[in-house]
Amino acid sequence: MISSNEYGSHSWELLVTVDHQHEEVQKEFLLRVTGDLHIGGVMLKLVEQIKIPQDWSDYALWWEQKKCWLLKTHWTLDKCGVQADAKLFFTTQHKMLRLRLPNMKTVRLKVSFSSMVFRAVSDICKILNIRRSEELSLLKQSEDTLKKKKKKDKNSKEPVTEDILNLCNSPVSSGLSGSPGLYSKTMTPVYDPISGTPASSTITWFSDSPLTEQNCSVLTFSQPSCSPETLAEMYQPRSLADKAKLNAGWLDSSRSLMEQGILEDDQLLLRFKYYTFFDLNPKYDAVRINQIYEQARWAILLEEIDCTEEEMLIFAALQAYHVSKLSLSSEAQDFTCESEVDEVEAALSNLEVTLEGGNTNNILEDITDIPKLADNLRLVRPRKLSLKTIKPYWFVFKDTSVSYFKNKESAQGEPIEKLNLKGCEVVPDVNVAAKKFGIKLLIPVADGMNEVYLRCENENQYARWMAACVLASKGKTMADSSYHPEVHKILSFLKMKNWTMSPQAVSDPESIDMKPECFVSPRYTKKYKSKQLAARILEAHQNVSQMTLVEAKLRFIQAWQSLPEFGLSYYIVRFKGSKKDDVLGVSYNRLIRIDMATGDPITTWRFSNMKQWNVNWEIRQVAIEFDQNVFIAFTCLSADCKIIHEYIGGYIFLSTRSKDQNETLDEDLFHKLTGGQE
């Protein structure tokens, strides 16, 4: 018999299901509670009733109907809103998750299902030894990708067994602070900057890290290329609408995995979401560099980003021999061999190709003297109803504007036209073999984009003017310290493209162990025979054959960054007042409205001109205000509007990073900029 006191007017029964592995013990428990009992008290009562001696410290209460964790243990049931009809689960916060890395390898590790995804990704990156975790996030595979995969598995006679790298013994993934593996915040080199192998001084760290020597090589070295048949069966976007589907599955960084319907042992993709690779350094970032390289490689092979035939052959040459062959030879090296490289030499060979520019050499000169360019170029203006008009003019580039005159003598007077390049789109229009060095400028005007082409005479002239245009589009002048490194980067990319056939190198492509179809997208395997492809890749390889492994990967990443579509994530949207759907491209510094049918840019808006942005969560509409009273509003049709909102806030957050800071992030600022007020 239960006394009437226990049946007090405020007490009620709460059903809690316990997630444990003991089959002989019941899983459902009825607790008599009151509304003023705190969550910690509920868990204490529950553990006392279960009577299983084990460590319950990783367990927490999950509220199934509301899809939320009850983690604030000092809150009462009344404050949480928990009543008698609530279904609570007492389950572990850290669970197994399968992650597909950019290099297509799958790792299995324990991840916090109760932390916000931003924090969970940070913990994952510590296990994998990837610095700058804020650049990555978790992505659900799109339905189309999964459908194609299921169809492939159905057609294959043998069951597909995936090679999974198990990292579940990691101290970080067990929910403990533990050893951070090879994740280093000190200035002690962690990797050899030439080969990417772990430096000898860090080998002793492997003993208490899930990254054993073998596991580390899986993450730091490029894997052998897949067969052409496998490549052909993988999902390839055919249109801008298809590309938009690839970006629909990003998880919300401000919510936990459980809150977003992710279950234990599900598979997600770990990808670089934000294309601003900050402070890349071969001494510390062998895993990060390799994973960025792999993401770039697969984006090119699967045509997620467009490139010309000439560029495709450069990418093929860099990965075909250089990265693949050197990776295999580096894996065969003994990890424990002592490095005799002097610190200064190591720093020099460190390629301080920090992919975003060099050091400021002469600050005073930069402040007082803004350089200008003046030269003869040809202007090309496309006409809608007639042929292009190509005329030579005298061009002067100063600050962020280009002016052109009839000839050099008239340059003292008024120009024929002055083009302000701030906020414009700059697209290379180059064919090195045909000696074509063009710059396509899409300049924002009131009713869309004004299209202008500049034609240069040679590589050097093109590099100088192209670098100036790129900087001007970002609102920077040639006085900026990144101008000369930008010129150098453009020239080095042109040099890679400018190959000449070496008879002894390509006399017999068949004698070389190579499947050229593995290194180019399926479109080119249909266009050329295997022998032709091999010969052309070998021609292109002449210019990259002297590079070290890490340099080849960094060059590949640089070449990828120089593609016009680099860093654009696409979404299908409907702009307010419009009757048709458009594509919105989100980049690290701008938004681009693109015509869905033609793929042509309509308007560009720079983040630097943005005053404020917000979301109307009721109608799921993103509204943005720019300088000069420009307002835009749109609803997202291919994904949740929260994803675009997070992209914009995320890029603004990343722009606040500086090398002077330590590597701790202002997580609160990230959530303020990206979280929204739902």
3D structure, described in words:
This protein has a seven-stranded antiparallel β-sheet with strand order 14-13-12-11-17-16-15, covered by helices on one side. Strands 21-20-19-18-24-23-22 form a seven-stranded antiparallel β-sheet. The chain starts with 10 loop residues before the first strand and ends with a helix. 29% of the residues lie in helices and 23% in strands. Among the domains are: 11-92; 372-478; 569-674. The chain has 678 residues and is α+β, with helices and mostly antiparallel strands. The model is unreliable at 157-161, 171-185, 203-208, 331-368 and 501-512 (pLDDT under 50).
Q: Largest sheet at a glance?
A: 7 strands, antiparallel
Number of helices: 19
Strand element count: 24
Helix content: 25-40%
Q: Whole-Å distance between the termini?
A: 48 Å
What does the overall shape look like? globular
How are the strands ordered across the major sheet?
Answer: 14-13-12-11-17-16-15
β-strand percent reads 15-25%
Q: Averaging pLDDT over every residue, what do you get? A: 80
Q: Which secondary-structure class do the elements indicate?
A: alpha+beta
Alpha carbon gyration radius: 28 Å
Low-pLDDT residue spans: 157-161, 171-185, 203-208, 331-368, 501-512
